[in-house]
């Protein structure tokens, strides 16, 4: 309830204001007293009332038709009589009533737009249609806008501009804009966003569209449209649409230029494209309506950072998808690895990389179809690649673990690694680069790859991860196993096979093996390879001894005399060489004891190679054969016909299958034939059809010297524990290797490592005693 | 048919000739009574077998790696006795003495 004092105060203020107003308009012959409040309100609202810009009559009656002095007075009175809220309400209500005019136009345009649809040919037409709609909306917006203090270009009249006092003007403008935009947004159909997107997209890459021309054929200036968008508040409203346009272009650009393109980093190129293409487009769209330079800067930095993030993310996703093949292609994929490294620093996809690569490895690498050499090769490349992407080695640690576990379960892994260590020709690609410096093995105790309980953490490096110094490839391969002993043993087996295969006098090959071992000594240490050194010394000593003996009593026998405690277990055989062979052995052994009186020679008659000349009635053959073959043919020189049993007996004792194999060497050469079952007869004359390959040296495929592999040796020792394992699996069903190992430790005299157990289980599996599935072993019933 | 051996690359291994016949000389061979390592392997102090780590033959018929025995004799506890039978370590058998040539060094003990 207003007090009389307040009423007095108000009327005093009003009188003052009116006084001012009157004073200002003194010269303009204004007659304020003629209007009462309600008339003022009506006049003001009439003045503001939105009109139909299509209506010619309304156009004829623009605001300039009003008596400007009357209007000014009316606004002043409305203001001073606190009728502003009422005027606002009337104005907004008028707008609501008139907005159907705009909705009608929107619908008209958008219906045409939608009828045109997405047909390519109509696309530019549609864009133009859309642009016209925006232009039209802007016209409506301008037309209904309450007059502002700023001169608008189409109404330069000075008197018009200051119709409403500045404070009132900005009040109206704000309220009007807000209300107009709210109604406009509500009126826009969903297809409007599509149109907006198409326009933004056109603007970013006009080359993707046919040239846009107006009806007159002149190119259309489209830039103004963004100002109109901004005025209508549509830039802010459709910011996500604008972003999506940029995102899609980034994705398309990467999709077009990057897949399988791994030689050079693509990130710099894409960033350059962003600078050339996307940044100017961003500037065009976003810098309207932003006044200060500082605002522009921060706006662009924000949006630019989002776009750059998207570039990183999309490229990173692509490279992760390609990672397996990138590793296969290493080192021709260094560019892609660089991309991956850089993008991973920006986006947090490291977990994805690990997950994906592990999945790929499981699918494409760690299965029975892949040979061990391939797995090792990919593993080595993985090491090299991930070290580039992530030098601390966290990623490698996580990816490597399953590969290492899998390799550990393969029986021939060590053999493969050792093979490539000594440059085994059969094993194909060498795992070791020639330029990799030879260095001692690094076996830091912190390397706990063997822990099968290890689980990948969803976040990066767990506490169990210790930064391991990047070690050389060989060290990493050797560290798949708990100790390097297995390697040394395998190395001995391999060296033994190779040395025993070396014919006498071939000192060059011995020297080559010696150089190999010298290099390996650097890696494994002198002590570990001492046994190999003795093996090599045996080779040299044999040669020296033989040279001496040949000087005394020439002989065709040139033995390699080994220190058998220093050689891997050689297959035993009881064969006795017949006829002249036995005589030669005895003679040579005698000479040996003369030269070395404290030693005697023991033959390993089944090993070695014999070079023979066979003179038959119609042909002469020159052949290199294993001793058993030689023994048999010697027997045939004594008698033409032999049964298999007789032959076996005549050479002491020999495996039936070995005997059959040796005989087939001769039948294949047409020297003997199987007359009746298991009865063989010498062919003094070649049979019809049998080729006479006279004097062509024939080599019976010399099998590798039968040195027991490390696995065989260990499997032999493990047999003792088989009953225990069998009982365990009978009672418990299926068990993992680790579990079996743990339980076996309770068994007396068990001192095998998990690897050794693995070989044994693998051997038992090959014999059909066990089956393994997902690392669980069970009895094969 | 005439079979002529042009060349025979044979494989053999060496054993110490301890005077035993092949039949009584087990396949695995004997071990040194001191280090329990096979004679044909080398003593714990050596890395290379054979001539570099020879055997020594006692009067008592016991045989050891020479290095093992010398080390044993060098200890005060040995009393210059054979570690197997505690008999005074006798001079080398003529056969072994002929084979080696270190009788001098031993008899000086
Ligand atoms: Zn000894
Ligand atoms: Zn020694
Ligand atoms: Zn004795």
From TrEMBL, chain A:
Record's keyword terms, sorted: Cell cycle, Cell division, Mitosis, Ubl conjugation pathway
Q: Name one Pfam family in it.
A: TPR_ANAPC2
Q: Which GO terms describe its biological process?
A: cell division; metaphase/anaphase transition of mitotic cell cycle; protein K11-linked ubiquitination; ubiquitin-dependent protein catabolic process
Every Cullin family profile domain range: 474-652
Which GO cellular component term is one of those annotated?
A: anaphase-promoting complex
Q: Tell me which domain of life the UniProt entry assigns to the organism this sequence originates from.
A: Eukaryota
Q: Where is the composition biased (Acidic residues)?
A: 426-437
Which portions of the sequence form the region Disordered?
426-467
Question: One GO MF term, please?
Answer: ubiquitin protein ligase binding
Keyword Cytoplasm included in the entry's annotation: no
Which Gene3D superfamilies does the record match to this protein? Cullin Repeats, Cullin, Chain C, Domain 2, Winged helix-like DNA-binding domain superfamily/Winged helix DNA-binding domain
Entries under InterPro entries matching the protein: ANAPC2 (IPR044554), ANAPC2_C (IPR014786), Cullin-like_AB (IPR059120), Cullin_homology (IPR016158), Cullin_homology_sf (IPR036317), TPR_ANAPC2 (IPR057975), WH-like_DNA-bd_sf (IPR036388), WH_DNA-bd_sf (IPR036390)
Q: Which family does it belong to?
A: Belongs to the cullin family.
User: What is the name attached to this protein's record?
Assistant: Anaphase-promoting complex subunit 2
Query: Which lineage do the record's taxonomy fields give for this organism?
Result: Eukaryota, Fungi, Dikarya, Basidiomycota, Agaricomycotina
UniProtKB/TrEMBL annotation, chain B:
InterPro entries in the record, alphabetically? RING-box_E3_Ubiquitin_Ligase (IPR051031), RING-H2_APC11 (IPR024991), Znf_RING (IPR001841), Znf_RING/FYVE/PHD (IPR013083)
Keywords (A to Z) from UniProt: Cell cycle, Cell division, Metal-binding, Mitosis, Ubl conjugation pathway, Zinc, Zinc-finger
> Sorted alphabetically, which PROSITE patterns does this protein's record hold?
ZF_RING_2 (PS50089)
- GO CC term, one of those recorded: anaphase-promoting complex
Q: Which GO terms describe its biological process?
A: anaphase-promoting complex-dependent catabolic process; cell division
Q: Name one GO molecular function term.
A: zinc ion binding
Annotated ranges, domain RING-type? 43-86
Please give the start and end residues of each transmembrane region: none
**Protein name, please?**
Anaphase-promoting complex subunit 11
Question: Per the UniProt entry, what species is this protein from, by scientific name?
Answer: Ephemerocybe angulata
- Lineage, opening ranks: Eukaryota, Fungi, Dikarya, Basidiomycota, Agaricomycotina
């Amino acid at each position: 309830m207003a007090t009389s004092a307040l009423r007095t105060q108000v009327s005093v203020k009003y009188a003052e204001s009116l006084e001012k107003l009157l004073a200002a308009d003194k010269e303009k012959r204004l007659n304020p007293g003629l209007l009462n409040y309600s008339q003022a309100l009506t006049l003001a609202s009439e003045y503001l009332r939105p009109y139909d810009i299509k209506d010619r009559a309304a156009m004829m009656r623009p605001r300039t038709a009003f008596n400007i002095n009357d209007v000014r007075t009316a606004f002043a009175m409305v203001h001073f009589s606190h009728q502003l809220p009422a005027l606002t309400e009337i104005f907004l209500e008028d707008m609501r009533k008139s907005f159907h005019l705009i909705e009608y136009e929107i619908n008209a345009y958008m219906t045409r737009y939608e009828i045109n649809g997405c047909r390519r040919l109509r696309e530019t037409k549609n864009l133009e249609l859309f642009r016209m709609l925006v232009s039209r909306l802007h016209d409506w917006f301008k037309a209904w806008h309450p007059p502002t203090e700023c001169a608008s270009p189409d109404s330069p009249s000075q008197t018009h501009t200051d119709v409403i006092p500045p404070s009132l003007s900005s009040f109206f403008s704000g309220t009007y804009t807000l209300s107009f935009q709210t109604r406009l947004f509500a009126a826009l159909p969903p297809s409007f966003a599509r149109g907006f997107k198409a326009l933004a997209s056109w603007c970013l890459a006009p080359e993707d569209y046919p040239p846009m021309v107006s009806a007159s054929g002149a190119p259309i200036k489209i830039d103004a449209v963004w100002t109109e968008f901004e005025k209508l508040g549509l830039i802010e409203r459709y910011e996500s649409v604008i972003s999506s346009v940029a995102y899609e272009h980034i994705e398309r650009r990467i999709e077009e230029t990057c897949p399988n393109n791994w030689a050079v980093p693509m990130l710099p190129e894409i960033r350059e494209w962003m600078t050339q293409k996307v940044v100017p487009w961003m500037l065009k769209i976003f810098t309207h309506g932003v006044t200060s330079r500082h605002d522009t800067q921060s706006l662009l930095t924000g949006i630019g950072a989002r776009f750059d993030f998207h570039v990183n993310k999309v490229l990173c996703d692509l490279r992760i998808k390609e990672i397996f093949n990138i590793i296969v292609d290493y080192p021709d994929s260094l560019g892609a690895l660089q991309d991956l490294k850089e993008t991973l620093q920006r986006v947090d996809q490291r977990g994805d990389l690990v997950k994906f690569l592990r999945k790929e490895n499981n699918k494409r690498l760690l299965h029975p179809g892949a040979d061990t050499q391939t797995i090792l090769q990919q593993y080595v490349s993985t090491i090299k690649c991930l070290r580039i992407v992530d030098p601390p080695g966290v990623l490698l640690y996580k990816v490597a673990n399953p590969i290492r576990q899998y390799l550990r379960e393969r029986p021939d892994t060590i053999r493969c690694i050792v093979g490539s260590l000594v440059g085994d020709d059969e094993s194909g690609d060498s795992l070791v680069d020639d330029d990799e410096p030879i260095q001692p093995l690094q076996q830091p105790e912190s390397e706990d790859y063997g822990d099968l309980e290890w689980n990948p953490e969803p976040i990066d490096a767990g506490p169990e991860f210790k930064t391991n110094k990047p070690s050389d490839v060989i060290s990493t391969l050797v560290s798949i196993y708990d100790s390097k002993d297995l390697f040394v043993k395998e190395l001995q087996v391999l060296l033994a096979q190779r040395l025993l295969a070396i014919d006498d006098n071939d000192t060059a090959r011995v020297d080559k093996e010696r150089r190999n071992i010298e290099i390996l000594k650097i890696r494994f240490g002198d002590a570990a390879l001492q046994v190999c050194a003795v093996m090599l010394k045996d080779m040299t000593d044999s040669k020296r001894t033989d040279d001496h003996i040949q000087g005394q009593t020439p002989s065709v026998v040139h033995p390699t005399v080994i220190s058998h405690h220093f050689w891997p277990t050689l297959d035993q055989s009881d064969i006795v060489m017949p006829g002249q062979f036995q005589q030669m052995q005895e003679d040579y052994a005698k000479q040996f004891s003369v030269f070395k009186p404290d030693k005697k020679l023991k033959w390993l008659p089944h090993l070695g190679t014999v070079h023979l000349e066979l003179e038959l009635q119609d042909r002469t053959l020159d052949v290199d054969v294993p001793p058993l073959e030689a023994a048999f043919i010697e027997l045939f020189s004594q008698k033409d016909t032999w049964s298999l049993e007789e032959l076996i007996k005549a050479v002491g004792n020999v495996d039936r299958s070995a005997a059959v194999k040796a005989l087939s060497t001769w039948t294949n050469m047409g020297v003997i034939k199987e007359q009746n079952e298991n009865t063989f007869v010498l062919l003094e004359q070649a049979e019809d059809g049998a080729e006479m390959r006279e004097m062509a040296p024939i080599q019976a495929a010399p099998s590798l010297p039968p040195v027991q592999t490390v696995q065989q040796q260990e499997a032999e020792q493990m047999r003792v524990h088989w009953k225990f394992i069998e009982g365990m699996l009978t009672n418990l069903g299926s068990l993992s290797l680790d579990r079996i190992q743990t339980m076996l430790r309770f068994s007396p005299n068990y001192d095998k490592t998990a690897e050794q157990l693995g070989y044994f289980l693998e051997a038992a599996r090959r014999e059909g005693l066990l089956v393994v599935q997902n690392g669980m072993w069970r009895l094969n019933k | 048919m005439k079979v002529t051996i042009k060349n025979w690359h044979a494989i053999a291994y060496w054993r110490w000739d301890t005077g035993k016949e092949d039949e009584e000389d087990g396949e695995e061979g004997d071990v040194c009574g001191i280090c329990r390592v096979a004679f044909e392997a080398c003593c714990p102090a050596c890395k290379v077998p054979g001539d570099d780590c020879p055997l020594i033959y006692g009067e008592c018929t016991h045989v050891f790696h020479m290095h093992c025995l010398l080390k044993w004799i060098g200890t005060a506890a040995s009393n210059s006795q054979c570690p197997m039978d505690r008999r005074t370590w006798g001079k080398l058998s003529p056969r072994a003495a002929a084979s080696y040539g270190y009788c001098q060094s031993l008899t000086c003990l």
